[in-house]
Amino acid sequence: MGHALASDGGFCTGNLRAIDHQRLSSSGYVLYASLPPYLATAAISAIDVLEDNRNLTAKLKENVALLWAGHCV
């Protein structure tokens, strides 16, 4: 999702001790940092736009096909 929805961050799984260590001790610039609220909101909005406009996905597939064929879009 990082590139597709212009977001960053990640998640950590494990026992409570490992999760607390990562959450409390990690730098804000590593994979285990929480996703900032404004980026989460932007990602949700992007998904909403895609759900409301199903034709965007079809248009993207058409554009990709043209690019693979060597034509400008």
Structural features, described:
It comes from Saponaria officinalis (Common soapwort). GO terms for molecular function: serine C-palmitoyltransferase activity. With 73 residues, the protein is an all-alpha fold. It contains 3 helices and no strands. The protein has helices spanning 16-25, 37-52, 55-69. The longest helix has 16 residues, at 37-52.
What key phrases describe this protein's structure?
Serine C-palmitoyltransferase; 73 residues; pyridoxal phosphate; mainly alpha; 56% helix
Q: Work out the helix count.
A: 3
Helix- and strand-based class? Answer: mainly alpha
Low-confidence spans: pLDDT under 50, at least 5 residues?
none
Helix content: 55-70%
Sum up the overall morphology in one term.
elongated
Radius of gyration: 18 Å
Q: Per DSSP, what share of the residues sits in E-state strands of 2 or more residues?
A: under 5%
User: What is the first-to-last residue Cα distance?
Assistant: 25 Å
**Element-level helix/strand string:** HHH
Mean pLDDT: 76
Q: In total, how many beta strands?
A: 0
User: Major sheet, described briefly?
Assistant: none
Topology, pairings included?
Layout: H1 16-25, H2 37-52, H3 55-69
